Amino acid sequence: MIRRRKRGLVPSTRKSAPRRRLPKIVNHPNPLVSIIIPAMNERTRLPAVLREAGRVHPCSETIVVANGSTDSTAEIAAAIGAKVLRYAEPLGHDVGRRIGAEAARGEVLLFIDADMIIPAARLRPFVNAVLSGMDVALNGYSGPVNRTDAHPVVIAKHTLNAWLARPDLQGASLTAVPHALSRRAVLAIGSKSLEVPPLAHTVAIVKGLDVRIADMVDVGRMNPVRKPFGGQDPLTSLVVGDHLEAIHWLIQERGQRGGYRDLGRLRSKVR
């Protein structure tokens, strides 16, 4: 009688894939630079993002705001050495920036996203610009502008800067990472405004802070493609609404014409 071998008892000859070694970062006890990274379900990209963050400045801390993650995002961030702020529920778009800013101890706050691997060499210009005296160091990415069907977000960014009398900024905005702020800027505009990046952008300019483009990183090529909902990018209406909120604040601050003159129209004489 031939006995069949029981399955599972034969030693496997297949080699198991080597475990990926996680990078290690060290947070400085007295950081000059705070690197803030909101993250939700980014376990795959996060190690590389943190590796580059740890190379930006020798006197830095890295803060990961892990919100609404159902994977091991928070655990991986902690294992690598980042300071991790955990929230079980999703905080909502850009709220993580405010949370991270309020926990930051550095004089320069650099904001990046967990879904984009940007080399440290491309992040340093934003930090160096603030260290040299700039209050808000913007990414000069303006979005695709040479198209007949311009994206609503691109139109919103250019429109807001035109209304703020800053056409030099074109489509640059705090909506796009990477960007960096001085602690002075965060105190002046208020950390809560960071939840609505175009509002923070507007308040900074109206308050007379030094807001300029520090460098250009083409994040349009890096942004993960999002699945459309109802035929539209789910973030388009949110970001356009953020710009409308910024314009609403500007009108409240400067009057119904947003600071632009009416050239002596006698509207009260017309019945």
TrEMBL record:
It holds the Pfam family Glycos_transf_2. Residues 1-22 are annotated as: Disordered. It comes from the Bacteria. Residues 34-138 form the Glycosyltransferase 2-like domain. Gene3D superfamilies: Spore Coat Polysaccharide Biosynthesis Protein SpsA, Chain A. SUPFAM superfamilies: Nucleotide-diphospho-sugar transferases. This is Glycosyltransferase 2-like domain-containing protein. It comes from Paenibacillus aceti. The lineage of its organism: Bacteria, Bacillati, Bacillota, Bacilli, Bacillales.
